[in-house]
Design a protein that fits this description.
Layout: H1 24-37, H2 41-54, H3 59-71, H4 75-88, H5 93-105, H6 109-122, H7 127-140, H8 143-156, H9 161-173, H10 177-190, H11 195-208, H12 211-224, H13 229-241, H14 245-258, H15 263-275, H16 279-294, H17 310-323, H18 327-340, H19 345-357, H20 361-374, H21 379-396, H22 401-415, H23 419-434
Helix pairs in contact: 1-2, 1-3, 2-3, 3-4, 3-5, 4-5, 5-6, 6-7, 7-8, 7-9, 8-9, 9-10, 10-11, 11-12, 11-13, 12-13, 13-14, 13-15, 14-15, 15-16, 15-17, 16-17, 17-18, 18-19, 19-20, 20-21, 21-22, 22-23
Amino acid sequence: MKKIGSIVALIIAASLVLTACGDPSTEYLRQGDTFYDQGQFVEAIAAYTKAIESNPTLVAAYTHRGAVYNARAEWDLAIADLGKAIQLDPARVDNYQNRAFAYLAREQFDAATADLDKTVSLDPRAVMAHTNLSWLYVQKGQWDKAIEAATRAIELNPKLYDAYYNRGAAYYAKGDMVNTLADMDSALAINQNLAPAYTYRGKVKVDKGDYAGSTVDFSKAIAIDPDMAEAYKMRGLVYVVLKDAQNAVTDLNKAVELDDSDAMAYFYRGHLYNANKDFDRAIDDLDRAIMLGSSMDTTLTTADPFTLDLASVYMERAITRRGKLLLNDAIADAKKAAELDPKSALIQATLGELLITNADIENGLAAINKAISLNPNVPENYINRAAAYDILSQTTKNPGYYALIAADMQKVIEISKDALQVEDARASIRYMESKGYIP
């Protein structure tokens, strides 16, 4: 699962809890705090353990040892210690925050959410808890809750770039490009080295058609973080749109090298190979995109315009297979695309064209008729349907098809913006008139 947004790491400053004079646990706790401050975590753990052995109900010892385990990425031990601290003192806020951080690292998001909710109920001004809640809600696809939590964090601390970034990510997922751009700008005004924010801003610009501006942002992201696969992928897509094949393949190769689980990178590169008639490589990449896309988490509902659409991948592979003259395979892919997206006029039209080319006129006509019903303003569909009628007129010797051809040609004349298409349609009508096929 790819993570979106930014987590604020919790570093718990040890607060010395004094016990009765003569209690050795106080000295062990003090020693542990000193070791902790010096980054000597093994020694700190040993000292806190002695404090616990000396006084098994000393909350601070569990709290501080749990913080050390977090710092050492020993999440299960941290969760255990912080859970014990919470059991002994349920009102202490930092234990819930620290345990939530361990749960986040373990990707136990429901448990982390519960601890952070408890944190803000005990301390409504716990800004890091609000910020991390916003990140969690983004991961869960609860966009409105993410926006609410991030907004509260920003109200408490307007300088938290993480909160702006998380809120911007939620706005982006909702398709609100205006607020996405505003929040990413705010995050970058605070932290100019936030590479993912440049990537988001670049994606908004791509969606707006600002390819030059998006390239600048993706390049900034890459300069800050040369391992950011998403930035290479998106810049590669821009180069595809700009028909800069050399730079496109370079960036997409790098994206795949950095993240070989990104179906979209393979899809974009497969499209590029197909456009350049490198059909074998195209099919390899599209096969990979379909395999990865079929196992993707589809529980998140997002308006991201650059989310993988499996129907589009199957269509791309259908077109590629047609280029290799693998007509039956191309038809199978087009049918799968139509199954995945039955309301796409383009898919139905392509399927109809493939079927007609393969001499399956009846099913080809059915697909083209459906395409026309879905979108009656595409002149090419009427041209292809007229071609099918022409085949039927010759194979069945039924002159009634000529009237249907003429009606489709008249429709082309009415809706086409292409002067050549219009002239060809008129010429077809004149020809049929000259032959007496139509009045």
